[in-house]
Amino acid sequence: MEVNIFGTDGIRGKTNTYPIDAETILKIALSTGHVVGKNLKSPKVLIGKDTRRSGYMVENALTAGFISMGWEVSLLGPLPTPAVSFLTKSLRADLGIMISASHNPYEDNGIKFFDKDGLKIDTKIEEEISKEIRNKPQLVLPSELGRASRINDVIGRYTEFAKTTIPTSLSLTGMKIVADCANGAAYKILPQILRELGADVVSIAVTPDGFNINEKCGSTRPEEAQKAVLETGADLGICLDGDADRVLFIDEQGILANGDQVLGLLAKAWVNRNLLNKNTIVATVMSNLALEIYLEKIGVRLIRTQVGDKNVSKCMNREGLNLGGEQSGHLILADYSNAGDGLITSLQVLSVLVESQKKASKELNLFEPFPQSLINIDAQKCNDFEKNEETKSRLEDVQTSLGEKGRILIRRSGTEDVIRLMVEHKEKNKLQETIDTCLSILKNKS
Description:
By secondary structure, the protein is α/β, with parallel strands linked by helices.
């Protein structure tokens, strides 16, 4: 068994294969129960899930493991990932778990862990759990077994909290909104809350059957939502992913806006209202250079982190910032939530649109993203760009030659034996030229 079973966002894999098989999941629960609960009296864990059929298997295996370690288990049922983060802190639990593979197809599943503050658990804890899996479990006595129960109305608790993040006077009366819920965890919540606020809602992908999550819908496949916006004359389209921690938007012209553009919209609105901490936001190295240039124009500084919402969150906490996110639409609004939250982000965007009285196309297109391309290269066919001084020097020369018109990013994949090359350039015709130059240097063909 590998040293660290965790990836960049919890544990993930294909259902009924390692590590998402019942035997391994049971071991994960036993190990987590020991590592996190060893100094706790009557520890409590909350477990939520999305709409995958395999969620039943994962939920039961986790439940058995935690009960065997003396934990009280509270089952939440289908619920967005950010709701699990919120409820873990609100209900004073010691641990929160979300069963989901996020935007992946139904064949996959995963396990995400939150600490008592609703934050993703620390990497050191992940490493301890991974090591403990190899040990014989230290089970509690029969008299010390935990128990499981279900908590009712968790959807109501979460939606009422979400509505407290916007002014009580906010009304969406007169707005038509397409809500694409990806046949996932928020299939009830998003349409319900939009209707409660007065919107005319066109719901799509709200009939989960255990196998259709993210299938030709949601933030990874927004084409049907774009078509629905145009056909119904909607003012806005909202596309969540399977566990509702990501969101993308569609303006009234059917044009998709990604996380970078939403960060630009919220940064502008918040800095104008003195709500943006230190006039600074956090994004990853993948965020478009055009966002950075736009933010400079409105007096906002951008801090970049490595890819992954955990890295964004850690940086925000360390720097005392309240806005950050990824191009994928995984945005963290720390004044309201410690996790990426598609519903709260949607409400904040709607609040800006209502206040400005402008069409979505005006607010979601504050800058023109630079053309960007991501290429995977077989690592075995590449130079060692990290240690080869000549290669490093030549790549630095390429970056210098681009000035403020372009950017290159080269990194090793954490999951595959490939080198990821990202190139962006203001001028589309220069993009391919830059890509060819970088490939020539990396493959040592020049």
